[in-house]
């Protein structure tokens, strides 16, 4: 595959390591996140055009704090240190970092910052703006050869640089949206300081990956479990372009999809000459779930049954040479880099299915973030409804039905959820809300319809805005939109007589109800 210019992001345990990498990629420069423990020989072999040190929770003067080899500063490659990374660079090059002894040296949150715009890092920016600070340590002494290029009311050394050697450090986080002009600062580091060419595009990635897959697969058979989610759909489209009818996609329809979703997934792949196997397993899944109310039990039943169904279909195909997985780059990062906390172990990364006879795994999206996966999907001609598909849990509607699950309840929720999504789209709010869906509660209440008394289900609506899904705020959907949704649901969907809207943020709540 064609080699791209590379920026290396060295992770020192910062919470924003993925975000830094995403921001670099958004500027059409390829980057990878590696542990601070990465050997200098490996870093040298990667031949990066620039290196970024992330933030981190430690203090650089602590005995067991993470450090990298000082030989990094002898590679002749520009380095940008962010927060902890800035202090690490300062200390490694002869400066002094100490704990702040008073509040004047500690800064957290939005801070008015003043920039020296003659610096390449701040080229084209206003001389002052808000930055997002998060540091309790202080650079008491700046290394020889460095000058100060930004300050705040409380801190004289918010940013430092040695332009001759290409070393830059900032005490704040330019990668977060709270830092006004932060994206431009990263752009300046990439293009003004590292002299990037901007050679990372999804058009090129698609072309190069398709060619690499064709070469790898040859005349072999390829199997993919298609969930209908963004990642598996884009992986399937990429393989379809590469190997055509050598690909078999198994789509297990467990009867807990949203309205018309199974048909939409099937129709989206009609343009490719592939073997598309849609397994109607609704009766089978609902039978296994009958009488089960506990959320984790539901999840386990669905996960295990999915594997069983996929196993049966795989055996019908016979020997498979390659198994495709929709692993994306956050899965790789979250599964652990060095001493970084493992946020969650991903099955696509940590373990392989033992029931399919295959030679090798293909993970065509392993280098991509979610926004890049969506962009690639458009490049491959997938319909927008699939590329921009709302986040949907693997167990589907099973964990949006509180209590036990029946076909009748699933059908009720399907219709109500469709009306919710339809009215949100008509109001133009679909691009403003990160995730929105309906939940069928197990609570019934008294209502009046016509001249009669009803005793029917309460439906909860949930909408959130978020950038990372780790925290979320409830979406301020206009009252008139909520009114239209409520009126339509109670009039068009039988056995629902009350609508409530969830106004709880995450934390303390989670986004999903179960």
Textual characterization of the structure:
With 514 residues, the protein is of the alpha/beta class. It is built from 15 helices and 20 strands.
Strand content: 15-25%
Count of helical stretches: 15
- The total beta strand count reads 20
Contiguous low-pLDDT stretches (5 residues minimum) are 337-353
Gyration radius from CA atoms, angstroms = 26 Å
Helix content: 25-40%
The 3D shape can be described as globular
Terminal Cα span: 43 Å
pLDDT averaged over residues: 88
Strand order of the largest sheet: 2-1-3-4-11-10-9-6-7
Give the biggest sheet: 9 strands, mixed
Structural class: alpha/beta
Question: Which characteristics define this entry?
Answer:
5-stranded parallel beta sheet, 514 residues
Outline the fold blueprint.
Blueprint: E1 6-11, H1 17-26, E2 30-35, H2 40-46, E3 50-53, E4 79-82, H3 84-92, E5 96-99, E6 107-115, E7 128-135, E8 137-141, E9 147-152, E10 159-162, E11 167-170, H4 182-193, H5 202-217, E12 222-226, H6 230-243, E13 247-253, H7 261-268, E14 275-280, H8 282-289, H9 295-317, E15 322-324, H10 329-334, H11 347-350, E16 360-362, H12 370-379, H13 384-387, H14 407-426, E17 435-449, E18 452-465, E19 473-474, H15 479-492, E20 496-501
Helix pairs in contact: 5-6, 5-12, 6-12, 14-15
Can you give me a brief rundown of this structure?
The protein is an alpha/beta fold and 514 residues long.
């Amino acid at each position: 595959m064609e080699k791209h210019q590379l920026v290396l992001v060295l992770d020192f345990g910062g919470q924003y390591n993925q975000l830094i990498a995403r921001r670099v990629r958004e500027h059409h420069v390829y980057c990878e996140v590696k542990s601070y423990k990465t050997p200098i020989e490996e870093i040298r072999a990667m031949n990066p055009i620039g290196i970024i040190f992330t933030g981190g929770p430690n203090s650089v003067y602590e005995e067991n704090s993470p450090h990298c080899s000082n030989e990094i500063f002898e590679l002749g490659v520009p380095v940008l240190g962010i927060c902890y990374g800035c202090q690490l660079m300062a200390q490694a090059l002869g400066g002094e970092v100490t704990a702040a002894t008073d509040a004047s040296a500690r800064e957290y949150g939005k801070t008015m910052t003043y920039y020296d715009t003659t610096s390449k890092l701040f080229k084209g920016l206003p001389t002052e703006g808000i930055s997002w600070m998060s540091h309790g340590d202080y650079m008491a002494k700046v290394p020889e050869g460095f000058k100060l290029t930004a300050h705040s009311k409380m801190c004289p050394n918010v940013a430092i640089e040695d332009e001759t050697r290409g070393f830059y450090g900032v005490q704040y986080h330019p990668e977060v949206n709270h830092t006004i002009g932060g994206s431009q600062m990263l752009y300046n580091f990439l293009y003004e300081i590292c002299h990037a060419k901007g050679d990372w595009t999804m058009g090129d990635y698609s072309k190069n990956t398709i060619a690499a897959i064709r070469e790898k697969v040859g005349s072999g058979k390829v199997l993919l479990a298609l969930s209908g989610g963004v990642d598996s759909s884009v992986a399937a489209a990429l393989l379809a372009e590469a190997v055509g009818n050598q690909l078999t996609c198994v789509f297990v329809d467990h009867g807990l999809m949203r309205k018309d979703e199974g048909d939409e997934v099937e129709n989206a792949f009609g343009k490719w000459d592939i073997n598309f196997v849609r397994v109607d397993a609704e009766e089978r899944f609902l039978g296994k779930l009958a009488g089960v109310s506990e959320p984790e039990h539901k999840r386990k039943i669905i996960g295990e049954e999915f594997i069983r169904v996929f196993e049966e279909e795989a055996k019908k195909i016979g020997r498979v040479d390659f198994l495709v997985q929709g692993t994306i780059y956050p899965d790789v990062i979250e599964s652990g880099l060095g001493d970084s906390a493992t946020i969650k172990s991903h099955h696509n990364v940590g373990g392989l299915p033992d029931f399919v006879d295959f030679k090798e795994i293909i993970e065509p999206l392993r280098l991509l973030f979610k926004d890049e996966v969506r962009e690639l999907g458009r490049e491959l001609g997938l319909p927008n409804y699939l590329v921009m598909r709302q986040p949907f849990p693997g167990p589907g509607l099973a964990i949006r039905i509180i209590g036990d699950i029946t076909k009748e309840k699933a059908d009720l929720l399907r219709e109500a959820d469709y009306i919710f999504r339809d009215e949100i789209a008509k109001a133009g709010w679909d691009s403003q809300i990160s995730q929105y869906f309906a939940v069928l509660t197990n609570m019934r209440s008294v209502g009046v319809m016509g001249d009669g008394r009803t005793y029917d289900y309460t439906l909860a609506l949930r909408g959130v805005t978020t950038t990372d899904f780790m925290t979320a705020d409830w979406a301020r959907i206009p009252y008139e939109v909520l009114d239209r949704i409520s009126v339509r649901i109670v009039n068009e969907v039988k056995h629902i007589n009350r609508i409530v809207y969830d106004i709880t943020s995450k934390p303390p709540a989670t986004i999903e109800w179960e």
